[in-house]
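Mods, move this if it's the wrong board.
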Amino acid sequence: MPLSPEERDRLREIEEGLKRDHPDLDAARDDHVTPDATRRFWYRLAMIAAVAALAVVVLVAFTVGVAQAGVLLLFILATTAFVSLGARATGPPGGRSR
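Not the wrong board. Structure tokens:
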């Protein structure tokens, strides 16, 4: 439920009072993780997962056979597409929009 204008004004007054009375608290609040840092983390994690998946496919190709490795690769690609499309449809965690 959205805040009423009076509640927004009161919240703004409280925030300004905290900034004025406790500047170190305001500085600590500004040190939170930025969306860019979060995006970079997930990108790096996705790259590590992609390399690990490729390593598994190559290992399967050498131990079991190329046909099974191809099926595994298609499964990994389909799963990745499914998860990616699902994440785009639901938006970021916590219901916040970009």
